[in-house]
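A.,

Following up on our hallway conversation. C-alpha cells first:
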C-alpha cells in the first residue's frame, strides 16, 4: 500500500486491494475477489509478472503484460498483449481512436 501513497495513486481509485492482505491469498484469488465485488462481466488484468497473466487466464480474462516492469519478456510471453509504456494502453483499450 505504501507505493500507492507515495505516488498519490489513491487519488485515482475508490478502493485498493493487496495480495498480502491475507496469508495464503494468491493473485488469482484477488482478481476473482475484485471481479465479484465489482460485478464485472469483462475485465483485463494489467501486470508485469507471470502471476498477473496467469491470474487473468484462471479467471477467464484477457491480460496485458507490462514490459517496463519487473518481469522479463519471457515471463510475460502468455500475455494477450504486451506494452512498452503505459501510454500503449490507449491503443489496446480504444483501438479506433
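Then the amino acids I'd put at each of the 97 positions:
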Amino acid at each position: 500500500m505504501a507505493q500507492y501513497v507515495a505516488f498519490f495513486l489513491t487519488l485515482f481509485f475508490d478502493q485498493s486491494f493487496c495480495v498480502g492482505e491475507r496469508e495464503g491469498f494468491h493473485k488469482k484469488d484477488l482478481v476473482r475477489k475484485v471481479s465479484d465485488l465489482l460485478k464485472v462481466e469483462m475485465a483485463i488484468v494489467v501486470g508485469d509478472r507471470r502471476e498477473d497473466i496467469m491470474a487473468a487466464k484462471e479467471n477467464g480474462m484477457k491480460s496485458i503484460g507490462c514490459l517496463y516492469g519487473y518481469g522479463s519478456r519471457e515471463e510475460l510471453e502468455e500475455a494477450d498483449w504486451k506494452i512498452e509504456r503505459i501510454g500503449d494502453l490507449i491503443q489496446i483499450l480504444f483501438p479506433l481512436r
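The CA atoms of residues 9 and 46 lie 16 Å apart. Curious whether your intuition agrees with the design.

B.
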